[in-house]
Structure formats: structure tokens, C-alpha cells
Amino acid sequence: MHTNLRARIRAGDQHAFGELFDAHARAVYNHAFRLTGDWSVAEDVVSLTFLEAWRRRERLEPDGGSTLPWLLGIATNVTRNTARAGRRHREALRRLPTAGSAPDFADELAGRLDDARRLAAVRLVLDRLRRAEREVFVLCVWSGLDYATAARALRVPVGTVRSRLSRARTRLRSLAEDELAGDPIRKAHR
Amino acid sequence: MNPDDLTRLLPAPAERDLPRGRHEVLRARVLAGIGADVPKRRRTPAWVVPVLAVATAAVVGLVTVSMHHSTAPASAVAVPVPHAPTNPRAVTLLAQVASAAGKQSTPVVRDDQFEYVETKEGATTGPGAAPADIRQSWLPVADLCRHGLLREGGQDADLSERGQPGVTCPYGGDLNYPSYRLLAGLPTDPQTLLATIYLQEQGHGSDPDSQAFTTIGDLLRDSVPPPAVSAALYRAAALIPGVQVESDAVDAAGRHGIAVSRSSQATRYEWIFDRTSLVMIGEREVRTKASKIGAPGTIMDNTAILAKAIVDSVGATR
User: Fold this and answer.
1) Closest Cα of chain B to A114: distance in Å?
2) pLDDT tens digits for B149-189?
3) Pairing relation of β-strands B114-121 and B155-158?
4) Contact A137 B10 (CB under 8 A)
5) Can you tell me the distance from the alpha carbon of A151 to that of B3, in angstroms, rounded to the nearest whole number?
6) pLDDT at B242 over 90
7) pLDDT (0 to 100) of residue A179
8) Could you tell me if A46 lies within 8 Å of chain B, comparing CB atoms?
9) Engineering a disulfide at B284: which of A64, A157, B124, B270 sits with its beta carbon 3.0 to 4.6 angstroms away?
10) Using CB atoms and an 8 Å cut-off, which of residues 143-162 of chain B contact chain A?
């Protein structure tokens, strides 16, 4: 079944590609959001990912399971190259608090992350990981890819995935511990 | 390594469906892009195609989703993006604005000076509406690794690029964060300039034309380009399909003017000019369609440009 779809896509079957879109657009959309924290950027990433996938279709391995890891790898690359232009955005990132805001995150650990404030708290922590660590974290932990699959998706050795994830964990731990032992919680205010 | 451990540390955000109707829109866009049975339109000036076809081949190591390919279907990706036709009045207005900008005298600028820009930001009417705020920035003229300053809402932030990923000092910046020297080195032929912008912004934004308009707007609003470069940026903007004129627009300081605009998806981006001097006084983003964000007419972003100068030190305003 999967193999058949792969073969059809490799052969340039546009109908099969439509099926691929229907099956995986939602997962790519959520993956892009997890990487960028922006739902509208995530929409852009969906179209760009599938267009790029079509361009690379002949490099899709003929055998294998789900095509989703392949798409998530492409989406990860596309996301690196997709950001709103402009100084404002760059400067806004620069001014993200470096201390005092992550207590919000520690606060929210117990709860379900389903509202804007909690999402923002998670973002703050995630944004403190290096990009490579964040990508591996999102693929392996949030999207549930195993190390080998994530390694293929990102085209890096398995050992690299393992070490990036290990660094991500160490950094997340220390962030969380800092917060629990730190100053009283300061909420952002306007 | 136990991933469950990490999930407890940082739980995944709840998954979401694409907003209603967007799955179909994006699907149609992708299928059109791969050459399925959807009519294609040429959206870009003819001269862009050969320039980019050559230039794209030179870009190595990047994920390039080429929107402007003219080669075989296997690698061609043309994404039709609907936009209003260019209004000839917009082209005329941009020519007049360019001419006025080009007549300014070119300052003598030293490498140890700073680009000073003061704007008033807000007030927006959408969700997360913020009151107007004064924003001042001092950016080193030549080397962005030196310390600049951003002062916004009474808070100061350092603007040095030193130690940022991919930055080698001294650093002249890029099109999205340019030093004065980088701007001064841009081509002043409008077609060459626009081709440069399309190439450097490839893969960014929702479509190349919208991205080019946004990039040029950012440069005009937040930088102090030499007069010849400002003029070339306005002339380049006139070549982007879909530019329009708004007879009245209001900046964040309440000043009325005439605007050049361009709509992308559900937003109209306006560059506002003083009617007499034709100097850019501000910028505004207006929602054009109803959505969760707000009704049509909701102001998403609003800026008034209050001062621009080349100054000797951080903190100096003239």
C-alpha cells in the first residue's frame, strides 16, 4: 500500500500526490507550528513543503513505510528558510526575556497546554534550545519518530540525533530546575 | 534516553486542524504549483525569469522552492497567487515619490556613525491591541557587531550582532537587517535591484511578490538608505504586480496622507506619504476580510516615522 503510493509519487502521479497531501497536510501543519510557534507561518510551510516534496519526488526511497517522516524532514528544512522578513521580527527575537519569564513554564508544567498563554510559555523554553536540538526534540519527542527515522529525515547520523536530544534534555532540565529553585515568579505585564 | 521523560518536561501543544477551508486552498495551490490541471499565469515581469533561472542554479546548499523557474516541469514550481491588477496611478505615484526621494542630498557618512530611526508604533485595533509606543533605534553604520541600541517603551536593548549564529565580525548585515553600508551598495537600477530582492528572499513569505513588497517596505521604514537607493526601491516597488493607490490613509501619529498599497491574502499593506512633500510618513496593515482576528478594516499594525538621521553616537537624535 505505502510502497504503491511511493511508486506512484516517484512516477509523477499528481493524483497520488493529492492523496499524499490529504493524508499528511495536517501533520505537517502541526509540525511546522511546533517548530515556529506561528500558525500562519505553519500554513506557508505546508504549501512550501509539498511543493518541495514534489520537486524531490524521485529521491523518495521506493520502499519503506509511511511517507510522513520524509515530509517532516522536508518541512524542517523549509521552516529554516521561512521566516517573516524584517528587522522587527529579528529584534523581537533578540528581546525575548533571558530570565524571569520561564517560571511561567514551570508553573504550567502540570497543566494541559491548550491555551495561548501556555503555548507562549512552552515557546519561550523551546526557543532557548539551539535550532538543531529543537528540531530533533520536536521530531523525536513530539512527533514520536524513532532515532533512525529522525536521522533519515534530517539526513544526519543516528549518533547525532542521540547526542542532540541528550543536550536538549540537559538544557530543558536545567531550565526547569532553575525555575523551581529561583526567584518568585514574575508574570509579564503590560 | 527516555522520550517520555522529555514529554513530561515539555508537553506537546495540542494538535489542530487546518482552519476551515484552508486545507482545500493549500491543496489547490500545491496542485497548481506542480502543474496539475490548473491554468498558470505569468505573475512576474518577464525579465525576472531569466535572471532568476540563472541565479537559482548558483544557489547551493539551500532548500530552494523556486517560484520563478522557467525550466522543465520536473523542477518547475509556479504558484499562482491571485492579486489585483496594478493600478497605473500607483506606478505614477511611486515614480513621483522616487523622484522626490532621489533629489535629497546624499550625506557624507563615516563608519563610526549610527543610523537613527524614531517611530511611533500602534495603536492597533485587533486582538492584543497595544497602545502607541515610541521606538528609537541606533544601528551602527558599517559593522553590526558594534553596539547599537533599541529603546522601546522606555526599555533599552543592545543591538549587537556579535555572537549570533552565522555572523562573522565585522558584519554588514543582510537585506532583512542591513547596515547603511550594505544599503549603499545595493544596485540602483530598479530591475536589477528587484531581481536581487526576489533572489535573496526566495522561499520566504507566502509568495515572492508579497515578500518583495514587504522587504522593500521594511527597508524604507526602518532604515536610512542613501537617496539614490531610496529612489531605486520605490521604482522597484512599481514593478511588483498588484500595487494600488489609497487616496487617504492615517499613520500612527494621526497624520493623513496618500498611500501605495498591496494586498496579500487577507491583509492590505499601505505605505503612507505626505501629500505635498511625498516623503514616507508611515505604514499601516489593514485586515481586508472578516476572520477570528477581526472585522474588515481592523488595523493590524500602524507606524508613524517621526525622525531619521545619521548621528555620531548612540543616544544622539540629530
Assistant:
1) 6
2) 888 767 677 778 776 656 788 999 888 778 999 999 999 99
3) unpaired
4) yes
5) 16
6) yes
7) 43
8) yes
9) B270
10) 150, 157, 159
Determine whether the interchain pair A77/B63 forms a contact, defined as Cβ–Cβ distance below 8 Å: yes
Report the residue count for chain B. Answer: 318
- Mutation test of the interface with chain A: which of B6, B24, B30, B67, choosing the one with the most A Cβ atoms within 10 A? B30
B16 part of contact set with chain A, CB < 8 Å: yes
Q: Enumerate the residues of chain B whose CB falls inside 8 A of the CB of residue A52.
A: 63, 65
Kindly determine whether residue B7 and residue A141, on different chains, have CB atoms separated by under 8 Å: yes
| Residues paired with residue B173 on neighbouring β-strands, in sequence order | B178
Residues 6+ apart with CB under 8 A from B130: A190, B121, B122, B123, B124
Q: Model confidence over B198-235: pLDDT tens digits?
A: 988 775 556 788 889 988 998 898 899 999 999 999 99
Has residue B126 got a pLDDT over 80? no
Residues β-bridged to residue B158: B149
Q: Which of B6, B11, B201 sits opposite A113 (nearest CB)?
A: B11
Report which of residues B132 and A99 the model is more confident about: B132
Phi, psi angles (nearest 5°) of residue B42: -80, 125
Return the half-sphere exposure (C-beta side, CA atoms, 13 A cut-off) of residue A65: 7
Task: Provide the grid cell at B110.
Answer: 563615516
Of residues A177, A97, A165, A61, the one with CA closest to residue B157: A97
Using alpha carbons only, give the angle B260, B266, B267 rounded to the nearest 5 degrees: 35
SS (H, E, C) B225-254: CCHHHHHHHHHHHCCCCCCEEEEEEECCCC
| Other CB atoms within 10 A of residue A47 CB | 25
Average pLDDT over all residues of chain B? 78
Identify the CA nearest to B135 among candidates B111, B110, B152.
B152
C-beta atoms of A122 and B13 within 8 A: yes
Is the distance from CB of A128 to CB of A175 less than 8 angstroms? yes
pLDDT, average across residues A103-117 = 44
Residue B5: pLDDT band (50, 70, 90) is low
